[in-house]
Structure prediction request, 342 residues.
Amino acid sequence: MHDTRPEPRRPCVPEPTAQAVPLELVRDAGADIVAAVSTVVDGKVDAIRTALTVMLAEGHLLVEDVPGVGKTVLAKALGASVGGSVNRIQFTSDMLPSDVTGVNVFDQSSGTFRFSPGPVFANVVIGDEINRTSPKTQSALLEAMAEAQVTVDGVTRQLEPPFMIVATQNPIDMEGTYPLPEAQRDRFTARITMGYPSVDAERQMLANRGGHDPLSALRPIVDVATLRGMIAAVRGVHVAPDVEAYVVAIVRATRSHPDLLLGASPRATLHLAQAARAHAALLGRPFVTPDDVAALAPIVLAHRLVPVARGLGGSGDDTARDIVVRIVSDTAVPFTAAPVRS
Prediction:
């Protein structure tokens, strides 16, 4: 008689540590990736740089805007430029968690259960219109985002690094949407909006897409092994104690601000520091400056905050960003004298 029970829990075996590449390679390859993706996403260099920064910071990106402005194209182009596996999930209201994580299927020929992996098993996972599906299905991504693993029927499986979720979302006041809860928004390292293209960018888009799809012509700039080496280099970027104190001061200021019902979490502190490391590495610097932190604070912190305006039924996204900008401007910037060369 065959055993039809699912396989027992397997220990999670970590991937071998990648060898860090030189920061010059991170800078040059990063610039090439941004240039390549810019051939597909016209006029959105800042959004592309942010997406790459989040990837190198081992985080996840929330792209929130109205339909048709290139949210999904940005995610696809980023995945294609780094040579890893890319899966796309089109979220709908009738999806189940198993449609994301995978499911055990009974194999009649062997009389055993066989695991059929879901689309979350990829290097870059595009969660298209994540707020079109129910909170139950949205929550299927929580373990993957926090721990890079998936547990199905008591069996835990590691997700192959690098692992990044790029979720797109339409504004929550549009019909048929489910706003992401604060606990899940907090797992996204950064949130960006695409915005409409400029006149020149929109005309360039028409010219570029007259006879072909530029996304189909995009080729990988780096392979997965090199990308892992770039991520390892980011981990080694130095954050001085004064800069660490600056990060903590900005985050803690959100927790006592009178215009906020909910401030940023300790996870936000870690995300801001790691994103600053990636920002510095893309500039070829082995250390983080306060300018790195200040530049990233609005996009790393704003989506985690609950302004009083939102609690009263208003739209708080712009308000939260403005509050973070004010907090950054009001927080004392640390200064450490540069070493004197002999």
